[in-house]
Design a protein that fits this description.
19% strand; globular; four-stranded antiparallel beta sheet; alpha+beta; single chain; 436 residues; 46% helix; 2 domains; 14 helices
């Protein structure tokens, strides 16, 4: 029974992913497809969460009756339900990745805001119960507020402060809001109240809600509003935005998926992509053996005559980080995007960072490798630029597949322009994350 429900949810998610892929290509969408996209995704994830809660209830009932049940039957059912719950969590993750691709339209240049969201924990599930139903109904009734589009947070991985954002169509975040709901009139009417923080005055058709909730709830709301206020305080206007030399290599993923051996190696940029199909993965008892057979000989070729040899392997896909582009926006074929999104293929990158480190040293950077970090700095005139957030740079190379030389050039550009933030200081600390 539950397996059929899960498959139906996956089918709906695939249809929603296709809508986003069409939107990416600039295809003409029916008006309802765009307007209803968020609520359709929310309803789908709400259904997934309802199944999750139903299974959890079954587990509790079985545990209470454990003594009267056949031990083998009990263990078999508990294991089955455990696996189904894990599958639902994965389905919710897929749905939120699709939601990220929608929110990315409005948040793609808001790295500081996304960093603040990312600091808040995410339990990997979806909203449920009265609160979840109230949020969805509010979004249904209010797709826009005062001409600004409402972006629903719970359908994403990336947005974790507040329940929704209010965004202009040119991609600027105007405000965020919190929704609180309860049933009134003998549970026949669902009432929702909204608490907003915004950069402009907005007119919202919603209850004030001050008399509905007790003191503990009001304190929680006040804390959430403080987080929303902090979110809107950003000095991103001073950030240097210059991506002229940032070229990505996602075409290698297409090449690997279309290669009989599932590999694509570009010797010039010293990057290897490995694609493994789902059936190939499950056919082997040792996954490392599959990878070893595919890459061992090529990895030997990747080692350079350099003191900076540093080979990394990473699985790349839908896992979210603030500076990553959602997979649906990658410049690869739709079929491969869907395969990665729905775990039909696993994609790995293998990169030797020697080219990157060598280019930095050629441009005058000093690189110090410590146990848990890499310290990078450069003397620029009267000051020294110390770079922070360097781990993000490596992720841009291994996961986002940017060309190493281009990243090095961009880092150099940022360091040499750091005097704009120096205020006459001898040492200037530059946050790399703020500039990409």
């Amino acid at each position: 029974m539950y397996d059929d429900k899960i498959e139906e949810i996956k089918k709906t998610l695939r249809e929603l992913a296709l809508i986003m892929l069409n939107l990416k290509r600039g295809a003409n969408l029916e008006e309802y497809e765009f307007i209803n996209f968020q609520t359709n995704l929310a309803e789908c994830l709400y259904n997934a969460m309802s199944v999750y809660r139903e299974i959890s209830q079954k587990e509790r009932e079985y545990i209470e009756m454990k003594e009267s049940l056949d031990k083998e039957d009990f263990l078999e059912k508990m294991q089955k339900w455990k696996n189904q719950k894990l599958e639902i969590k994965e389905v919710i993750s897929i749905g939120k990745s699709i939601g990220d691709s929608f929110a990315y339209i409005f948040y793609r240049d808001s790295i500081e805001e996304l960093e603040k969201h990312y600091k808040h924990p995410d339990n990997g599930l979806f909203v449920s119960g009265i609160g979840g139903r109230g949020e969805i109904e509010f979004i249904k009734e209010n797709p826009t507020i005062d001409g600004y589009l409402v972006v629903y947070h719970s359908i994403t991985n990336m947005l974790r402060i507040g329940d929704f954002s209010v965004c202009s169509l040119d991609g600027k975040v105007i405000g965020t809001g919190e929704i609180k709901s309860e049933y009134i009139n003998d549970k026949r009417v669902l009432a929702s109240s909204v608490y907003m923080s915004s950069k402009v005055k907005l007119k919202i058709d919603a209850e004030e809600g001050e008399e509905i909730y007790g003191n503990s709830t009001k304190e929680k709301i006040q804390k959430q509003l403080k987080n929303q206020d902090d979110l809107l305080l950003s000095d991103s206007g001073d950030i240097m935005k210059d991506k002229r030399k940032m070229n990505e290599q996602h075409f290698l993923i297409d090449a690997a998926c279309n290669n009989e051996k599932g590999i694509a190696y570009n010797e010039e940029i010293n990057t290897l992509i490995v694609a493994i199909k789902e059936e190939e993965y499950y056919a082997s008892e040792n996954f490392d053996d599959i990878l070893g057979e595919k890459i061992d000989n090529i990895v030997k070729k990747m080692i350079k005559d350099s003191p900076y040899n540093n080979i990394r392997m990473e699985q790349i896909g839908k896992e979210y980080k603030p500076y990553r582009q959602p997979i649906i926006w990658w410049n690869i074929s739709d079929d491969i995007i869907l395969d990665i999104l729905f775990d039909k293929r696993a994609i790995f990158s293998v990169v030797n960072f020697a080219t990157y480190y060598e280019r930095l040293t050629e441009m005058g950077f000093q690189i110090e490798f410590k146990e848990n970090e890499i310290v990078v700095g450069k003397k620029c005139g009267e000051y020294i630029a110390k770079l922070e957030g360097f781990e993000m740079i490596e992720d841009l190379i291994t996961h986002e597949l940017y060309v190493q030389e281009d990243i090095a050039e961009m880092v150099n550009y940022i360091a040499e322009n750091a005097h704009n933030q120096s205020d006459g200081e001898a040492i200037v600390r530059v946050s790399i994350k703020r500039h990409f």
